[in-house]
């Protein structure tokens, strides 16, 4: 049996059409393996099933077919109790698109304390966790501030601190930068990468920004509820045709290198992020 930490087996999901009562299948037999500490981006055109997959991994939705295993345990089984589901949600935290919908308290530090309080963590430990989580996202000086007065990026970092305070092993970001300005996006991306690098938290990020996906170690491309591609940014972006056919962009820098290669120009090297592309082009001039 696979040793993967999170594994889905022939996972399917159908929504029910309210008016006709008919099943609307949106995920068709997803087989996915995720190891601890991975940094994964899930991309796909609108409606390809990314959010549905994320909600299944967090047990916000129950599969209509197949199974989800975490640490070898079938977490989609009907035997799961409410406590089991609660424990799983603490292990696999989720950050959503709109920061305003995720903040519940009127003071930043109370908001961050909300999750651990619900977990029944002793109050001295809550204090420590809140301080640590705010420090981690660089929001210590805003501990006593009102969340609604913060910028979008700052609010999203408070929402992230609230999840960190529950000590998750995995965090899923569902389009968490989509509503932010460029500065806010960068703040959230840097936080995400720090959690991966320094805390070894497994990161799964759903994004329609190809440059954000390029920063992950692995990209999964969904197309109409199926996995179209699964590989490193290099593997995915050096073969852009399937992405373009699936209605997706390729980062401009990677696209440029791909086109130069097609012209017969030899450009060995990585093409994941713009920095990789820069190195790849510079290497030619250094030869
Ligand atoms: P993505 O995140 O890739 O945009 P979603 O998982 O949100 O895709 O949606 C996949 C499909 O499921 C879409 O066709 C969408 O219209 C449909 N869908 C999503 N949420 C619901 C819902 N609550 N009820 C019915 N259909 C839904």
Describe, in plain words, how this protein is organized in 3D.
The protein is an alpha/beta fold and 287 residues long. It has a single domain, classed as Rossmann fold (3-Layer(aba) Sandwich), CATH 3.40.50. Helices cover 39% and strands 22% of the residues. The chain has eleven helices and ten strands. The strands form two sheets. A six-stranded mixed beta sheet has the order 6-7-8-3-9-10, sandwiched between helices. A four-stranded antiparallel beta sheet has the order 2-1-4-5, covered by helices on one side. A hairpin with a 6-residue loop joins strand 1 and strand 2. The longest helix is centred in the middle third of the chain and has 18 residues. The mean pLDDT is 92. The site of adenosine-5'-diphosphate has 11 residues, from strand 2 and helix 1.
Compact description:
This protein has 287 residues and is α/β, with parallel strands linked by helices. It has a single domain, classed as P-loop containing nucleotide triphosphate hydrolases (Rossmann fold).
Which descriptors would you attach to this protein?
alpha/beta; 11 helices; 22% strand; binds adenosine-5'-diphosphate
Biggest pleated-sheet summary? 6 strands, mixed
Series of H and E elements: EEEHEEHEHHHEHEHEEHHHH
Q: What is the level 1 CATH name?
A: Alpha Beta
Alpha-beta content class: alpha/beta
Helix content: 25-40%
Strand order of the main beta sheet, please? Answer: 6-7-8-3-9-10
Strand content: 15-25%
Distance between the termini: 47 Å
Shape: globular
């Amino acid at each position: 049996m696979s040793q993967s930490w999170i594994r889905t087996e022939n996972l399917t999901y159908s929504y029910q059409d309210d008016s006709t009562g008919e099943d609307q299948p949106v995920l068709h037999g997803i087989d996915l393996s995720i190891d601890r500490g991975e940094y994964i981006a899930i991309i796909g055109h609108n409606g390809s099933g990314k959010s549905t997959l994320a909600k299944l991994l967090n047990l916000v939705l129950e599969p209509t077919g197949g199974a989800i295993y975490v640490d070898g345990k079938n977490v989609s089984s009907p035997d799961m109790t409410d406590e089991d589901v609660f424990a799983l949600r603490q292990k696999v935290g989720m950050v959503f698109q709109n920061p305003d919908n995720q903040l519940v308290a009127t003071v930043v530090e109370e908001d961050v304390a909300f999750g651990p309080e619900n977990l029944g963590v002793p109050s001295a430990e809550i204090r420590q966790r809140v301080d640590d989580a705010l420090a981690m996202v660089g929001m210590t000086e805003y501990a006593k501030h009102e969340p609604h007065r913060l910028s979008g990026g700052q609010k999203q970092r408070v929402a992230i601190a609230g999840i960190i305070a529950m000590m998750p092993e995995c965090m899923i970001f569902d389009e968490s930068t989509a509503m932010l300005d460029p500065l806010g996006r960068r703040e959230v991306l840097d936080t995400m990468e720090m959690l991966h690098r320094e805390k070894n938290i497994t990161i799964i990020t759903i994004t329609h920004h190809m440059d954000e996906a390029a920063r992950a170690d692995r990209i999964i491309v969904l197309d109409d509820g199926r996995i179209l591609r699964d590989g490193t940014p290099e593997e995915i972006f050096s073969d852009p045709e399937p992405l373009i056919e699936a209605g997706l962009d390729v980062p401009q820098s990677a696209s440029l290198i791909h086109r130069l290669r097609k012209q017969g120009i030899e450009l060995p090297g990585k093409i994941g992020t713009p920095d990789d592309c820069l190195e790849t082009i510079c290497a030619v001039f250094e030869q």
